[in-house]
Specification:
Elements: E1 3-8, H1 12-20, E2 28-33, E3 37-42, E4 50-54, E5 60-61
Antiparallel strand pairs: 1-2, 2-3, 3-4, 4-5
Length: 70
C-alpha cells in the first residue's frame, strides 16, 4: 500500500499490528504504510500525535515529525 491523502481507519491486518504494538486500534488512523512501517496519527481532537510502528518488531517510535507524502 502506498501513501494516502487522508488518514483512514485501519483494516484488519493493520489492527493486528497496532494491537501487537500495545496500542488501541480505535484510537489511531493510518496515514500510510510501506513494507517496513505503519505510520499512524492520533484520532483525538486535541493535539495530534504521530507515531510509527515497525511491522516486524512491533516497536513504537515517536518522531518529532512523521514524514508525509504529498
Amino acid at each position: 500500500m502506498s501513501g494516502r491523502r487522508n488518514p483512514e481507519k485501519p483494516d484488519a491486518w493493520q489492527k493486528q499490528i497496532i494491537r501487537k504494538a500495545g496500542l488501541k486500534p480505535q484510537k489511531w488512523l493510518v496515514i500510510w504504510e510501506n513494507e517496513m512501517y505503519l505510520y499512524l496519527v492520533d484520532r483525538g481532537p486535541e493535539q495530534r500525535e504521530d507515531i510509527i510502528v515497525d511491522k516486524e518488531t512491533f516497536e513504537v517510535m515517536r518522531p518529532k515529525r512523521c514524514p508525509r507524502r504529498r
